[in-house]
Hints:
Two copies of one chain form a homodimer. Helix content of chain A is about 40%, strand content about 20%. Chain A is of the alpha+beta class. The first copy, chain A, has two domains: about 10-145, Jelly Rolls (Sandwich); about 155-240, Arc Repressor Mutant, subunit A. A four-stranded antiparallel sheet of chain A has the order 2-6-4-5. A three-stranded antiparallel sheet of chain A has the order 1-7-3. In chain A, strands 8-10-9 form a three-stranded antiparallel sheet, with no helix packed on it. In chain A, helix 5 (about 155-170) packs across helix 7 (about 195-210) and helix 5 crosses helix 8 (about 225-230). Chains A and B meet through strand 4, strand 5 and helix 4 of A and strand 4, strand 5 and helix 4 of B. The structure holds a DNA duplex.
Amino acid sequence: MTAGSLSPNTLMILKLESIFAFADEEKQALQNLPIQVTTLKAGRDIVRVGDRPSQCCLIHEGFSCVYKLTSEGKRQLVALHVPGDIPDLQSLHLKTMDISLASISPCTVGFIQHDDMRCVCERYPRLTAVFWRETLVHASIHREWLLNNGQREAYSRMAHLFCELLIRLKAVGLGEGDTFDLPITQVELADAIGTSSVHMNRVLQALRADGLIQTKGKQVIVPDWEKLKEAGDFDPLYLHLEEAGAA
Amino acid sequence: MTAGSLSPNTLMILKLESIFAFADEEKQALQNLPIQVTTLKAGRDIVRVGDRPSQCCLIHEGFSCVYKLTSEGKRQLVALHVPGDIPDLQSLHLKTMDISLASISPCTVGFIQHDDMRCVCERYPRLTAVFWRETLVHASIHREWLLNNGQREAYSRMAHLFCELLIRLKAVGLGEGDTFDLPITQVELADAIGTSSVHMNRVLQALRADGLIQTKGKQVIVPDWEKLKEAGDFDPLYLHLEEAGAA
DNA sequence: CGCGAGTTTGATCACCATCAAAGCTTGTGG
DNA sequence: CCACAAGCTTTGATGGTGATCAAACTCGCG
């Protein structure tokens, strides 16, 4: 199931559709949004702290992350994105970026001009609600990460993150059964979880030893979903995937 | 400067005005929003995980927090609110609450029906943008907390939080010069920062010993703003307080 | 085949959690 | 107005999770 052949906003629409019943013309309007497509190597900044972009970014293929740095140079990933996400939709209303956005794996991304977004929202107010909701779900994920990184130990945190990624990937049709691709280094996982990369390595070994995950190259296999869920103290409520559509 | 005599949405409007130039009728519409006012003792839940509220909450006086629990009962505060904040504006589009909202100090709060919010937003689309922006700023604060709690040590984290609170309170006209009221226990600060309360106590002693803060009962005094800022590695950009209004 | 990025391992140490108990404050009722 | 109780703050001691440093190993890739 590669996304190569699809239009760059297909997955976004797919995802939004699962929680919202579009009218035909609303869907048309989304599909007709002018999008400038680009491919990126891994590890490239897309937007940086302090920038004032005039467009926002749509992940079509690959993984990206949002990160922040302390003045000492320590890095925290504050979000991970899967295809279908719009990582910097916030830039529509917050002029100057408080975060940096970067590709984690090779990516194909689409850029949508803010002006075009505003036009669509103006003409179809229900789309405003859908996009607003998208940013609210990201905020909800931030909150869960705060709980995760603040109150669970590294082993559990990592289990939790695997759960989240599996669910989010399956929600956009990526990941087969109990398997998904995760083209991300241990250093990046460590930065997301808030541990050192050395410790992250040991945590991953422990998770493998306990049979919670298996890895084959960039692939992650979850042999026992219930066990992983329990280890990660995972409840998918915060992803808001199964709610009735917003009015 | 007590807020007792003011209408319950005054501070909210004040805050929004500082980043957005309302038209007269827009401001009128906000001022005419029906609000049901209530007073609360400290430590009361306002909304709980799993609820499906039909209204949202506006803090008029006092402090509130958003928290989440692990299944082991560990608590993480994921947000603190000052007067003028709308802590659960998200409930307008995310039906079931992924968080609990509680008063930290005695509070007076106002409740606005979702339906009324939707009416106002429908009639004045620019207000939609303002409210949307409000939720985006809260998300930005979440991200900074992720960085703070994940990459700084407790001493620095706490300094950072003091900086944030001073700025946010001054933005709504609370706090005189270098002083502000902070009716919150060390246990709650610990839950926000992600440390034990014992360690929080020692951190506060260290901050006092180093002259970064003084405390008199519930009052916090910041004798040397620059030093506190440096200790907390604080940059107010993420609060988005000084931007040109959203179009 | 060799380079560089990423992973793995070992050893030491610091920050902070945890447990336990004693002082302190604040509000409430007698 | 005082006394008591409950919640909050403070202190001490011990131990664990995870940071840090250093170096070897693996693997994909040009």
